[in-house]
Amino acid sequence: MLHRPSTPPSPRLPLRPADDAYIGAQIRDEVAADLRRGRGAVTNRSGRFEPQMREAEDDGWGSLETLDAFKTEVTHEKPKTIITRNDSPDIAFDRSINPYRGCEHGCVYCFARPTHAYMGLSAGLDFETRLFVKEGAAELLERELSAPGYQPRTIAIGTNTDPYQPIERQYRIMRSVLEVLAKTNHPVGIVTKSALIVRDIDLLAPMARKGLAKVALSVTTLDRTLARKLEPRAATPEKRLAAIAELSRAGIPVTTMVAPVIPGLNDPEIETILERTYISGAREAGYIMLRLPLEVRDLFQEWMLTHYPDKLRHVMSLIRSVRDGKDYDSTFGNRMKGTGPYAWLTGRRFEIAAQKIGFNKARTRLRTDLFTPPNEHGRQLDLF
Description:
By secondary structure, this protein is an alpha/beta fold. The protein has helices at residues 20-26, 125-129, 137-145, 168-171, 173-184, 201-209, 224-230, 237-249, 270-280, 295-307, 312-321, 341-357, and strands spanning 2-5, 52-55, 73-77, 83-85, 95-97, 100-101, 130-134, 155-157, 188-192, 213-218, 254-261, 284-289.
């Protein structure tokens, strides 16, 4: 294992001919395929705050073959609070809950990957294998909802990492949080790409009948081959369509999120995704343009070099065309949709298709007037 001073990633990957030497230089840190099987990222470079960068180097004796395959490791953490607040002007919620840090789905494009650097870990393979469970989330939520003067507004869940990722089957943190929200009649909006959400229909359906719950299913592609490479441990496209149908039949409002739209890779599917999800029962729809903040830029380009090297130049050129010539633009109002002719064309395609199919005829607005604060343990109950 070599150690060298950590340096920030280059501002932009040059567009050069994709010859063997160039590709080898760009992905010299690539982890062997058999060691990262079923994962999205192809490298595991040190986090951006680390004083040293570590990379594996074959000494000529085949030493790399002795490394263990990446396995999911779970750490329990005890946060002091569970509701995260924000004042971003271009998103529709001001509070959210993330039951987990990291995400086993392994979506290579995930804009949450850079947050793992705050834990001293890599945004690459560490993000999808070194996971953190927020222990006691339900109890924390009850305490925060009991705070004097708390004013209910929709809590968004799944806006950072997926609350229904595979480890939720075992730890059930999302389930416990949802039980608190159901008990207190608190509105919730959920974003996921997992079919596991149907497990909680028994909670979500009664909440939806009261106007307290809605769900957005992220459908990135209907191509099984692309989905397997792009988001390896997320539900297959067919299972997501089936989940939309089951949620819709239960009376739960479902939104289709075509997210992210990757120019030159999955954007030809926009109309087909909208058609299939509408047939399945979704009645609202939205989209988000691919975002490549910090380490995600290099991780995505490494992934392209590994899986679609012939498309790299074209895809990156289109991405920069919607980001004012940069790999990413974090400006509020621009970061979700992009700017420029290609971004405008994508938006118009989406709007025309959604309108033609029948999406967005009505918007689901959740109620806040039914909220009943939980009785905190040890607090005297109301007499009347």
